[in-house]
Write a structure and sequence with these properties.
The chain is built from six helices and ten strands. With 234 residues, the chain is an alpha+beta fold. The longest helix is centred in the middle third of the chain and has 17 residues. It has a single domain, classed as Chloramphenicol Acetyltransferase. It is 38% helix and 23% strand. A hairpin with a 4-residue loop joins strand 9 and strand 10. The strands form three sheets. The chain has a six-stranded mixed β-sheet, covered by helices on one side. Helix 4 packs across helix 5 and helix 4 crosses helix 6. One of its GO terms (cellular component) is cytoplasm. Keywords: Acyltransferase, Transferase. Pfam families: 2-oxoacid_dh (PF00198). Its cofactor is (R)-lipoate.
């Protein structure tokens, strides 16, 4: 049995540890915490994962770099464009949930999670289905620039029916992003790896089980995979 003196010392390790510094949640960080906390508490998130042949995507990406130079589309822009195509097939995932109502949207507006020195933003690219991948990239860059400068408006952060979050450039393979309210689903984009047998990419679809079920979500994820494996240079 541990004697009282050592027991008290052991407990003290957790009670009297030195505090290096305290950072109070405020401003954007507090807003993000409240918004995503609301989503986590009120949704029923389920994650589906898959991988895809990223060879066509990488071929299109490198071909566009030679063609468009500095204005060439990023991997994120290609993914957003492919998701838009998948949403035209499975329009039930282009939706918001408010209380006990699911609102299907007639515009394909996709938010993109962006890491900036000011914190996490998710600006909305509107009518993605009607834009080329080059136009999607140009709009994304403009919105990111506004987010970095702190000039982005609430309107530019609203109106989305789906969200894409890409951590692949940081080496992450799979992750489960929190659904961006009031959307019913979000796509987590993982790294693209050269396996020796070709390029492989990794995806995670997180959906709200209140709004849809596993089988429709699996079909939607399969369509995103199909679009990515069929991507053209743009």
């Amino acid at each position: 049995m541990m004697c009282r003196r050592y027991a008290n010392s052991f407990i003290g390790l957790f009670v009297t540890g030195a505090v290096v510094r305290v950072v109070k949640l405020s401003g954007l960080r507090k807003a993000v915490a409240e918004r995503l906390g609301y989503s986590f508490r009120n949704s029923l998130p389920v994650a589906l994962m898959t991988e895809y042949d990223a060879g066509p995507l990488m071929m299109a990406y490198h071909g566009a770099r030679e063609k468009f130079g500095e204005k060439s589309p990023s991997i994120t822009a290609y993914v957003v464009k492919c998701v838009a195509s998948a949403l035209t097939v499975h329009s039930e995932f282009n939706a918001n949930i408010e209380g006990d109502e699911i609102r299907m949207l007639d515009e394909v507006n996709i938010a993109v999670a962006v890491d900036t020195p000011r914190g996490l933003y998710a600006p909305t690219i509107r009518n993605v289905d009607k834009k080329t991948v080059v136009e999607v990239e140009a709009e994304l860059r403009a919105l990111v620039d506004k987010a970095v400068k702190g000039t982005i408006t609430l309107n530019e952060l609203a109106g989305h029916g789906f969200t894409v979050s890409n951590l692949g450039h940081l080496g992450v393979t799979y992750f489960t992003p929190i659904i961006n309210p009031p959307d019913i689903a979000i796509l987590g984009v993982g790294a693209i790896k050269n396996t020796g047998d070709g390029y492989r990419g990794y995806l995670t679809l997180v959906f709200d089980h209140r709004a849809t079920d596993g089988a429709p979500a699996a079909r939607f994820l399969a369509e995103i995979k199909h679009q990515l494996e069929s991507v053209a240079e743009g």
